[in-house]
Amino acid sequence: MTDYVPIRARLMVTTEESPGLATLHLKVQSETPFTFQFGQFNMLSMFGIGEIPISIMGWQDGLLMHTIRAVGRVSTAMIGMQKDQELGLRGPFGKGWPLEKFEGRDLVFITAGLGCAPVVAAINYAVAHRNRYRRIVILQGVKHHNDLLWQPKYDAWRTMGDCQVLLAASEESKRKHHWKLGLVTALLDDAEFDPRHCAVMICGPEIMMLAAMPFLQKHQVRDEDIYLSMERNFQCGMGACGHCQIGPHFVCRDGPVFHYPDVKPWLGVKGF
Amino acid sequence: MEKGFLPRENLSQLHAVLCQQGYKVIGPQVKDGAIVFDGLRDIADLPWGIVEHTEAGAYRLEDTGDNRCFAWNNGPQGLKPWLFKSQQTVWRGEATSDGIRFKSEQPSPQPLAFIGIRSCDISALYLQDKHFMHSAYADPWYTAQRKQLCLIAVNCSRSNDTCFCESTGDGVEATYGYDILLDELDDGYLVDVKSERGRAITAALPLQPGSQQHHKQAQRQLKNARHQQRVMPDAEQLLKLLEHLNDKHWQDIAERCLACGNCTLTCPTCFCSKQEAEVEPVSGEHHQVRYWDSCFSEKHGYIAGMQLRGDVSQRYRQWMTHKLATWQAQYDRSGCVGCGRCISWCPAAIDIVAEANLILGDDHD
Ligand SMILES: Cc1cc2nc3c(=O)[nH]c(=O)nc-3n(C[C@H](O)[C@H](O)[C@H](O)COP(=O)(O)OP(=O)(O)OC[C@H]3O[C@@H](n4cnc5c(N)ncnc54)[C@H](O)[C@@H]3O)c2cc1C
Ligand code: SF4
Ligand code: SF4
């Protein structure tokens, strides 16, 4: 845990997931163990270039994982790092998914877009602790079939007991096996879970979150069982810089994972 | 405790005692046509005889030639720049053969004594304390300097056209947060002490007992200052701004607003900042530098190729609804202390009180 001054994290392995998207496996250079919750994020900095917020993807073989899409200056530099190069790390910050609270319930994951790290991290956790949860339902929407990252993982999840994986492609004309055409929200009609004992975790564009709500209501999912991972501009990650406010909430501090009833009034309000 | 009286000719001793006790004295002075707080070498440099006249979009000084030095109300900045600096290195990184060495930036506070701050400045300070000091991650630079302040406040003896601290509950009389409080009178200063730090200073001053005349004059001045033109709606009313998010009036404001951010820069409670990575040309070090930022700036709401607040109407709405409404959930009160700075320093003469009242319209009686 480090807040104002970064600690060093050394790149051990880069896994290219798709063009422009890579998972960095980092050795955190710290005496104290790096503990975190899924859904939390770190502020990662590239020497001389800048600092950006990135979700924690997971921890494997003593290494911290971050999956990064190259979209601009800092992120592009990060996925181009050489082995043994270092970046700065401040974190972990914010609130993650309250996964322990969800024990004994059906878990429903809804994501759209490419490699939504906070949700994939939570699925990995649920799968690793399979007996703590009941049914697992994974709904993922992408534009094109090829955009789906970690295809083998989805295949493995599909064959796991009591797990439903539903995929949708919005910009394809031909339907593939296991896929539906259209938006992720359309998959909700096929999802089978117990709305009275579930936790729904959503990550992706806010417009998708909004679109999912009527479907969830139709399934009689209660607002208090829904959690959202939000994204805003972060400069500090510590609730000080003011950039990430959505209404009264500082997304970096009060989120990025929010209990839906808390952000409901602000969701989809243009300009917030 | 009884208030003491410091004759005007002894004011220089206040300055001397502060210096003796190791403070750097910061006081109001006339600079570039405005009242500015800066290092005060001599009380002769105080704005003797100066008052300012403010209105929406205007700030003008007048030399009345009288013998007072605190007859003005405020200038473009209060205490904010001294604690939350407009530029602050937050960490440094040095590239070595063995990777990056990260270094913290140590605070370098010094004992500062401010002469002449106002009730609204103290309210703003307490709001910034909540944000920077009493938060999950206390800001080390703010906190270190905050602990080394000596605050010598002055009650306002008049109000300006843009002052509305009476309606926000932040003035005109200072009631907390100061070490020493002065009322500036015709022949000197009524002196009230609040803290041990303050007592250590007043004990070294040639104070006389304050007379009934003195107290009467101080009360008269306060009564006079309480006449203010603008009235900010109360906290409960202001929350209703959130029921007016689609009001067409936001667009009307946007047609006048230049999105220059002056309002946020002069506002003593605004706290937004951005960070830049800068490479120091000589050492090659990475300096992570924090600068004041504004919700009016182009990139404030930028994420992944889009600006959440592309329209100026959305930026103005963010500024006003945050300051007056959502701030209440964050810090238990509105973020406006009624100083009027954002009104007088707005080049487009936009008046936050008038606009809030207009938007609340019929809801507000
Ligand atoms: C909580 C959270 C978790 C995130 N997790 C991931 C992740 O796991 N993987 C991933 O690839 N991306 C993630 N992002 C998005 C990532 O932060 C941006 O893509 C990144 O900031 C872009 O920086 P850049 O310099 O490469 O791009 P540029 O477009 O050059 O951005 C310039 C600057 O704008 C700001 N900025 C731009 N986009 C964002 C944004 N979306 N969010 C916050 N600040 C932004 C940053 O200060 C950035 O340095 C996350 C964002 C948030 C808020
Ligand atoms: S309200 Fe006035 S001071 Fe504020 S950004 Fe607009 S023009 Fe500038
Ligand atoms: S909003 Fe305007 S009047 Fe209120 S505290 Fe800020 S600058 Fe002063």
Would you kindly provide a written description of the structure presented here, covering whatever features stand out?
Chain A is an alpha/beta fold. Chain A folds into 2 domains: 2-93, Beta Barrel (Elongation Factor Tu (Ef-tu), domain 3), CATH 2.40.30; 99-266, Rossmann fold (3-Layer(aba) Sandwich). Chain A is 18% helix and 36% strand. Chain A has 6 helices and 16 strands. The mean pLDDT of chain A is 92. With 365 residues, chain B is an alpha+beta fold. Chain B has 2 domains: 4-84 and 102-227, no CATH class; 235-270 and 296-364, no CATH class. The longest helix of chain B is centred in the C-terminal third of the chain and has 20 residues, at 312-331. The two termini of chain B are 41 Å apart. Chain A binds chain B through residues 3-8, 10, 29, 45-51, 71, 86-88, 231-233, 235-236, 238-243, 245, 247-248, 250, 253, 269-272, and chain B through 90-91, 93, 95, 99-100, 102-104, 131-132, 135-137, 139-140, 242, 245, 271-277, 279, 286, 288, 290, 293, 295, 299-305, 308-309, 311, 313-314, 317-318, 322, 326-330. Bound molecules: flavin-adenine dinucleotide and iron/sulfur cluster (2 copies).
Name its key features:
A: 272 residues, alpha/beta, 2 domains, 6 helices, 16 strands, 36% strand, B: 365 residues, alpha+beta, eight-stranded mixed sheet, 13 helices, 31% helix, binds iron/sulfur cluster
What's the SSE blueprint?
The complex is a heterodimer of chains A (272) and B (365).
Chain A: E1 2-18, E2 21-29, E3 41-46, E4 50-55, E5 58-60, E6 63-69, H1 73-79, E7 86-93, E8 106-112, H2 117-128, E9 136-142, H3 151-159, E10 163-169, E11 179-181, E12 198-203, H4 206-218, E13 226-229, E14 245-246, E15 249-250, H5 251-254, E16 257-259, H6 260-263
Parallel strand pairs in A: 8-9, 8-12, 9-10, 10-11, 12-13
Antiparallel strand pairs in A: 1-2, 1-7, 2-6, 3-4, 3-7, 5-6, 13-16, 14-15
Chain B: E1 4-7, H1 11-20, E2 24-31, E3 34-39, E4 50-55, E5 58-63, H2 80-83, E6 87-96, E7 99-104, E8 112-117, H3 119-133, H4 140-146, E9 149-154, H5 165-168, E10 180-184, E11 188-193, H6 196-202, E12 208-209, H7 212-225, H8 235-239, H9 249-256, H10 262-266, E13 273-279, E14 286-292, E15 302-303, E16 306-307, H11 312-331, H12 341-344, H13 352-360
Parallel strand pairs in B: 2-8, 8-9, 9-10
Antiparallel strand pairs in B: 1-11, 1-12, 2-3, 4-5, 6-7, 6-14, 10-11, 13-14, 15-16
Helix pairs in contact in B: 9-11
Bound molecules: flavin-adenine dinucleotide and iron/sulfur cluster (SF4) (2 copies).
One iron/sulfur cluster is lined by residues 257-263, 296, 346-348, 350 of chain B.
